[in-house]
């Protein structure tokens, strides 16, 4: 009893000490990042305040400039150079030089880098979210949830578990190599390239950068031509943090441009991460094949949102709205197909329609609006095209959001949340990625039917299944071919940063986030060495040494059976055969040695 009482007291004292240590503020340096040219103080220069009219044709590399504007009001923000192939190679070469130094850094130094970044993010949340809002049209609430919070979670996970998953990992040796020790080592790849879209400008830079740098790599990110203004500010945060830990700032870089810039990046790096459309993903693979570099592709999605009849309807409606309308279509894995059981179909449609009608759409920084602008006019036009096709095929609009005061010249940048019923899989709306705040709702009768409907898609990114029975929801989710599933929720997988993220089918392959994503930034090296060096080493038996004996194959078959036979008696019999053949070989060897000596004496 006294022993256990002592253990309890020591354990309690240890817990108290750990708690007291947690109360001591960590000594994390602060960094200064120049934001004078991105803060909207109302005193913009005339050339940065006029209404921008984007070209109606796709911008080409030869234009040499990436033009930036605010989607919510079309105000001009400035421009950045469209980098040439040679300029991209120079940036990658600089990152490679810096990576040679950074690869030798300790995990302690890498954790300090992450803490400095985390501290800056927490202290400057409003600035980060407002810049994202101005560049993409989303609300600052959506920017906080989808960007700031997700990146803070990733940093926290890396601080807690990153080193653990990058340390050498022991592996079993098996029967043939019992005298060996085996392990897997994770070494930096070199310079990683990333091409990211506009939907989450802050997150899409920091997500690949954090994993790549923590694994000892350099990284160059080609940011979207539709979100270059914000991206070129966000990189300052990372480079200021690198300088604070004594690392070369060129270790991480962003580049601006169009397709030629991206193609040059793919041709110059040691691995590519691409987030974007399926069509461009295929082109990335084709270019990457020329240098045989690994590729991670996170492409389109058409995620299913399945609602069984035994759910809490109010809860499900709340989740459905956040899953489909967040960031006015800026979601990379939003719900795009709603399948509702026929018994509650009408109730679900009524409830969600009532909520959608109350949603207001307008300039996110000009008032209290639930939803902002669509980032590009082309995207808004695509959404309307999908809706028109569905209407032509018999679908009906039952609810739309309400417009607030829209700036003159920017009306086409806004698309209200729209509820559509009487949809089916012949409509483009149910097959093509919409990437917008449209809620097409289709009824189903049985679980088997909804599984078939959910799998009737060329995409396979994620899904959400809702049921009052978790077992029923699991059973349905198990049958859906996709990369991630949320039970009685939607897309919360991404906030669990220990999990990998990615899809199947035309949603891509490879994973980022989690252990799998972190290790994907590494050369995975298998290492074997002697367990009891130098006393026991690998030595081939006489029948297998060159020149091999006449019975070499018979000997090898007996070795295989003795090692792997399913029956203990068969293994013992094979072992006896091995010993016999070794004995005969040794006797033959001695006999040949005697004859050889006799021949020498005769000579």
TrEMBL record:
GO molecular function, one term: oxidoreductase activity, acting on the aldehyde or oxo group of donors, NAD or NADP as acceptor
UniProt-annotated catalytic positions: 298
Keyword Oxidoreductase: yes
Keyword Zinc carried by entry: no
Ranges where the Aldehyde dehydrogenase domain occurs: 61-527
Family in the record: Belongs to the aldehyde dehydrogenase family.
Name of protein: Aldehyde dehydrogenase 22A1-like
Species annotation: Cucurbita moschata
Gene transcribed to yield this protein: LOC111436875
């Amino acid at each position: 009893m006294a022993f256990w009482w002592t253990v309890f007291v020591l354990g309690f004292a240890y817990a108290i000490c750990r708690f007291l240590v947690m109360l001591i503020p960590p000594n994390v340096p602060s960094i200064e990042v120049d934001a004078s040219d991105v803060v909207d103080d109302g005193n913009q220069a005339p050339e940065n305040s006029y209404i921008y009219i984007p070209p109606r044709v796709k911008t080409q590399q030869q234009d040499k400039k990436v033009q930036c504007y605010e989607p919510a009001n079309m105000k001009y923000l400035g421009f950045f150079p469209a980098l040439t192939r040679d300029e991209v190679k120079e940036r990658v070469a600089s990152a490679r030089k810096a990576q040679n130094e950074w690869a030798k850094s300790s995990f302690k130094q890498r954790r300090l880098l992450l803490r400095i970044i985390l501290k800056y993010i927490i202290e400057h949340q409003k600035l980060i979210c407002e810049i994202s809002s101005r560049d993409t049209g989303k609300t600052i609430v959506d920017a906080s949830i989808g960007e700031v919070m997700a990146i803070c979670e990733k940093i926290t996970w890396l601080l807690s578990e990153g080193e653990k998953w990058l340390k050498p990992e022991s592996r079993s040796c098996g029967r043939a190599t019992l005298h060996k020790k085996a392990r897997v080592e994770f070494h930096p790849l070199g310079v990683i390239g990333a091409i990211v879209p506009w939907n989450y400008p802050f997150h899409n830079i920091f997500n690949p950068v954090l994993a790549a740098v923590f694994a000892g790599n350099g990284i160059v990110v080609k940011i979207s031509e539709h979100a270059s203004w914000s991206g070129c500010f966000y990189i300052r945060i990372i480079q200021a943090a690198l300088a604070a830990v004594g690392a070369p700032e060129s270790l991480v870089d962003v580049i601006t441009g169009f397709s030629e810039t991206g193609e040059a990046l793919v041709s110059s790096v040691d691995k590519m991460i691409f987030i974007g459309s399926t069509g461009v993903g295929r082109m990335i693979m084709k270019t990457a094949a020329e240098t045989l570099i690994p590729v991670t592709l996170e492409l389109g999605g058409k995620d299913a949102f399945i609602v069984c009849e035994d759910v809490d309807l109010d809860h499900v409606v709340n989740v459905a709205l956040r899953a489909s309308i967040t960031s006015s279509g800026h979601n990379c894995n939003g719900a795009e197909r709603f399948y509702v059981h026929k018994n509650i179909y009408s109730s679900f449609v009524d409830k969600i329609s009532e909520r959608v009608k109350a949603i207001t759409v307008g300039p996110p920084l000009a008032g209290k609006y639930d939803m902002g602008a669509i980032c590009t006019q082309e995207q808004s036009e695509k959404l309307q095209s999908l809706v028109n096709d569905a209407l032509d095929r018999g679908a009906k609009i039952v609810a739309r959001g309400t417009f607030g005061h829209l700036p003159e010249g920017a009306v086409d940048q806004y698309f209200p949340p729209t509820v559509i019923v009487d949809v089916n899989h012949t409509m483009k709306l149910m097959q093509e990625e919409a990437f917008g705040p449209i809620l097409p709702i289709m009824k189903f009768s049985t679980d088997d039917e909804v599984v078939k409907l959910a799998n009737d898609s060329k995409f396979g990114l994620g899904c959400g299944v809702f049921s009052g029975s978790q077992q029923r929801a699991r059973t349905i989710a198990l049958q859906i071919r996709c990369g991630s599933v949320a039970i009685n929720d939607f897309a919360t997988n991404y906030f669990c940063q220990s999990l990998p993220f990615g899809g199947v089918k035309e949603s891509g392959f490879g994973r980022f986030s989690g252990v799998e994503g972190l290790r994907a930034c590494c050369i995975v090296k298998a290492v074997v060495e002697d367990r009891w060096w130098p006393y026991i080493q690998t030595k081939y038996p006489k029948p297998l040494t060159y020149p091999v004996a006449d019975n070499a194959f018979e000997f090898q078959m007996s070795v295989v059976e003795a090692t792997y036979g399913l029956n203990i008696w068969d293994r013992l019999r094979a072992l006896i055969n091995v010993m016999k053949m070794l004995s005969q070989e040794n006797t033959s060897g001695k006999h040949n040695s005697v004859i050889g000596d006799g021949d020498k004496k005769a000579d």
